[in-house]
Amino acid sequence: MRKSVALISAVLFTVVIIAILGSILKTVNSYSFDFYKKIPQTSLLIKDTENILERISKEINSSGDLDMLFNDFRFASENFNVLISISPVSSKIDINEITQKQAKKDIINLLQNTLTQYGAQDPKYFIDLILDTIDKDSLERTPPSEISIEITNFPNGKIYNWTHFKKILSFYDKNRMDNSVYKIPWRKLFYFGDGKIKPVDFDRIPEEIKNALGLGENDYDTLKKDKQLKKILQNLDIITFTKNKSYLIQVDINYSSENIKLIYDINKKKAVDIENSIIY
Questions:
Q1: Which contacts (CB < 8 Å, 24+ apart) does range 103-106 have?
Q2: Which residues of the chain fall below pLDDT 70?
Q3: Three-class SS string for the chain?
Q4: Each residue of 102-116: b (16+ CB within 10 Å) or e?
Q5: Spatial separation of the C-alpha atoms in residues 210 and 15, rounded to whole Å
Q6: What are phi and psi of 87, to 5 degrees?
Q7: Is 142 exposed, middle or buried (0-12, 13-18, 19+ CB in 10 A)?
Q8: CA torsion angle for 103, 108, 114, 116 (degrees, to 10)?
Q9: What is the pLDDT of residue 276?
Q10: How much is the pLDDT for 32?
Q11: What is the pLDDT of residue 96?
């Protein structure tokens, strides 16, 4: 019976998404022929997508079933094609949280164990590069670990995006002659947020994170019974999905030759970042 209800809910949910996403084509098609309206077209698409996500968020909060959300949705007409892909962000950890007292030790352990697993020669130096990038001073933990001293336009204060992070990888490789850091599946582990502690989705957290943190293959209830492991869950706010806490998703909008990455909080019902608005 429960499976039948779940199936019906999934079908209804998909129908709702198709109906409301279909409105994108109808609205945006009017811009398709006019090159000079490319920027308004992009803005309109973002705005429409945000409106759609707000409605989808209500469906999610009613059913509590996130699995229905993480899919690809494609719409095409004679003049216009849109592909919208939705994936979780809250299954990963914001690396900028490393400055937070409660999370610092566990994120450093996550980095240390991951770097060691992939054969990095100097995990401590790599971690110091991360810390010296995120802090705002110019004091070096392990010279040369203040990249901004050697690269004048290298920003400090946080890690902003993948382009910024790749510069750290390159700087490490240059100074330690060690390309092992390129083999690590960083995109599975981290994203680059505002550095405030935000919930991590236990049900979707990758095995790489669980193993590096020592959580193993235990279920959530088992981990909560172990004082040491429970502390890790609390420090990083690793929880099962709840309607009352922030939950971030990434929405990739592909149309024509354009790609927009929108980071959206389905519980707060608002966009928190548009990735390609970052200029470097």
A1: 103/197, 103/235, 103/236, 105/235, 106/213, 106/232, 106/235, 106/236
A2: 1-42, 62-64, 77-80, 275-280
A3: CHHHHHHHHHHHHHHHHHHHHHHHHHHHHHHCCCHHHHHHHHHHHHHHHHHHHHHHHHHHHHHCCHHHCCCEEEEECCCCEEEEEEEECCCCEEHHHHHCHHHHHHHHHHHHHHHHHCCCCCHHHHHHHHHHHHCCCCCCCCCCCCHHHHCCCCCCCCCCCHHHHHHHHHHHHHHHCCHHHHHCCHHHHEECCCCCCCCEEHHHCCHHHHHHHCCCCCCHHHHHHCHHHHHHHHHHCEECCCCCCCCEEEEEEEECCEEEEEEEECCCCEEEEEHHHCCC
A4: ebeebbbebbbbbbe
A5: 35
A6: -140, 155
A7: middle
A8: -160
A9: 56
A10: 42
A11: 97
User: Which two structure tokens, joined as six digits, stand for 106?
Assistant: 């566990």
